[in-house]
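Reading group handout, session on sequence-to-structure problems. Before we discuss, look at one worked example. The prompt was deliberately terse, the way you'd type it at a terminal:

> structure Putative hydrolase of the HAD superfamily

The input record follows.
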Amino acid sequence: MPTARPAAVSLDIWGTLLASDPDFKPARNEMLRVALAPGVAADVFDAAMRQADRDVDDRCVRDGIDIGFTGRIEATLRALELPVSPLVERTPELYDAQQRLALAHPPRPLHVELPAAVAALRVPVVLTSNTGMLPGELMRKLLVLAGFGGYPGVFSNELGVAKPHPRMFEEACATLGVPAADVLHIGDNPDADVAGARAAGLQAELIRPDGVSTLAVLDSIVRACGASA
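And the output record:
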């Protein structure tokens, strides 16, 4: 738990601030199945999509690379031994369909008090996130719906690298206009968030993905700011 006041805060998004709406991924995966793999049973495609997503997440963290919407669907199709060529011509329409579903089933704050807790910070804030299937353009819309609008964001699909790659954290510090040593990054992944941030020269705090843990860290920052005011 930080005891000194940081000059600025970088926040991970998924597992730190937000959780996916439980209806979103089933609806998104079914949309993709109907479009690209109608002969595959719904439960089989859903399981393949979720496994591919996890496997790609692990690769992104291991190698510091960004693999987004198209790459994750390609991984699913290959796992199912299906051709990927239909995806190429249909990517724009499928992305638009995903966006509609995401806006209809937006992610939720992990804790109802988190938006107010972030707003109460008396230091600059940036949101620093690996984007996965949901690129920064869409994430900005979803963050507004969840109560986290107005904060600058550093998104992996826009940089072409993913945490723990140092460029993610360098861009976060540049966005904040604060030296790395004075920035505290908060996240739930020990490799992507904590090891990555520290390797880039930032302070780092590991939280549990339950919302309560994030609230406790944010509260400690508010108290530190009050003590140093």
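Points for discussion. First: Strands lie at 8-11, 18-19, 108-109, 125-129, 153-155, 183-187, 203-206. Second: Residues 24 and 49 are 13 Å apart (CA to CA).
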